[in-house]
Write a structure and sequence with these properties.
Radius of gyration: 13 Å
Largest sheet: 7 strands, mixed
Structural class: mainly beta
Number of helices: 0
Length: 125
């Protein structure tokens, strides 16, 4: 089974930074496109960012394009989401998905069945 585990969530003040991590048990890790999603209270699942196998191809959702950065370390089987300039509306449970694909023409990320349980981020003053 593929295990996907997010970590790094917590309480942060508006404007502050936070880095999330997602570790995937499946090997080789480099075979997987990786993505971050989130679900804010009372809202649907929102695409945030995706990164290809090599780490070169990267795409972001419009809402976080200028504030969030996705990266990966294949040696550690880990993908990161660096979040800066956090806003109150960034409060959400953040999820990692492994093994999907991104269609740059439609701007759509097609998720796989490999999801983590999520890590909660609360932005509050």
């Amino acid at each position: 089974q593929v295990q996907v585990v997010e970590s790094g969530g917590g309480l942060v003040r508006p404007g502050g930074p936070l880095r999330l991590s997602c570790t995937v048990s499946k090997n080789p890790f480099s075979d997987y496109t990786l993505a971050w999603f989130r679900r804010a209270p009372g809202k649907g699942l929102e695409f945030l960012a995706a990164i290809g196998r090599s780490g070169i191809n990267i795409n972001y959702g419009d809402s976080v394009k200028d504030r969030f950065t996705i990266s990966r370390d294949n040696a550690k089987n880990t993908v990161y989401l660096q979040m800066n300039s956090l806003k109150l509306e960034d409060t959400a449970v953040y999820y990692c998905n492994a093994g999907g694909s991104y269609d740059s023409y439609s701007g759509t990320y097609y998720d796989s069945a490999y999801w983590g349980q999520g890590t909660q981020v609360i932005v509050s003053s």
